[in-house]
Amino acid sequence: MSKTSQLDHADLIVDRRKLKRRLNKWRGFAIAGLLLGFWAFVSLNDKMAAQLGVMDQIARIEISGIITEDQARAAMMKELAENGSVKAVVVRFNSPGGTTTGGEALYTQLRNIAKKRPVVAVFGTMATSAAYMSGVAADHIVARGNTITGSVGVIMQWAEVSGMMGKLGVQMNEMKSGNLKAVPSPFAPLDEEGRQLTQEMIDESHKWFIDLVAERRNINPAQIPGLIKGRIFSGRQALQYGLVDAVGGEAQALDWLKASKKINKDLPVIDWQQTNTSQPGLFGLASNHIAKLLGIDLSLFTQQFSQDGLMSLVTPKLISKWRQ
Questions:
Q1: Class of 56-155+205-323 per CATH?
Q2: Rounded CA gap, 206 and 200, in Å?
Q3: Which residue has the higher pLDDT, 215 or 8?
Q4: What's the CA gap between 194 and 182, in Å, rounded?
Q5: Which member of 20, 78, 176, 181 is catalytic?
Q6: pTM of the full predicted structure?
Q7: Which of 92, 209, 280, 295 has a Cα-to-Cα distance from 218 of 20 to 30 A?
């Protein structure tokens, strides 16, 4: 290699080193910029900051509509229980109830959270049946004076269409392992043995519900007029009988957290929402659109009638009678 070639090669090595130093310098600036941007984004986004555990908070969740078992809600509740930045949880209820197992599952989820941090329930327009069932899991319950609550009971309903099928000339054939299999059935009248079995199951679930309320609210259900029979109460009546702890809203719930649990009520209140991955199909989208044009909310019907099992639910018909 000539002397000139050696000099050119040396210059090339020097240039490469200079370029590498410049690249490292800009790479460092880029990383610092990304970290700074991420910090700024987290600082501006309270929800993300709270979920990352870098900011203390009071978590707020909404329980509305028909209550059923929900895997997305269960995952959110588990995260709430494990997140160290959550100092307390406010649960806002506006629900007529739902399935008995759905209320039981939500009750258990809230009690798991309450083992680690205070939980306070705020009852809105309605918190009855399975909603009240799960609400008693809270350490403290606040209701509006005109909140509709209570309805401690269990119901099982089904349509019996055997008479209509006979008029249409349709006969239902079946073979089963025992006469109590698939009882009650919409395709056959309920005989006395089946009626007793169904009532026995409802009574057992009802007793569990009553005992749960008695334990959590420290009351004697037999001494509260109509409680065992499943009556509903206004928020003021519920306070009188010990079914709730205070009349008010979220402000009163935060005051209680500060006074009783030493929680700073000036902490940011962050809304937590479960992730719902289910998407309606083409038929569902079309049905929803037509229903909206007609002023009908399909969600209540699809949720209520797509669920199996016992229901702990107050129906609109019952509420209209109560308000008259």
A1: alpha beta
A2: 10
A3: 215
A4: 10
A5: 181
A6: 0.71
A7: 92
